[in-house]
Design brief:
- 31% of the residues lie in helices and 19% in strands.
- By secondary structure, the chain is an alpha+beta fold.
- A 3-stranded antiparallel β-sheet has the order 1-2-3.
- It comes from Thiopseudomonas acetoxidans.
């Protein structure tokens, strides 16, 4: 039987932590000139994945 592969897009976007998974904010990669400084500042850093999405992230990363 072949090995189970992880989704390569999910591998790049999510990182496992002790309490779940962390991810970067969306809408912070390009065309930032029209966005306010306050909005850009609020999109910095990482967040925990919402509990309702944890199961699908685990499936994409083949954790279980």
């Amino acid at each position: 039987m072949p090995k189970m592969k992880t989704k390569s897009g999910a591998k790049k976007r999510f990182k496992a932590t002790a309490n779940g998974f962390k991810h970067k904010h969306a809408f912070k990669s390009h065309i930032l000139t029209k966005m306010t400084t306050k909005r850009k500042r609020q999109l910095r850093g990482t967040n925990q994945v919402h509990p309702s999405d944890v199961a699908s992230v685990e499936r994409m990363l083949r954790v279980r």
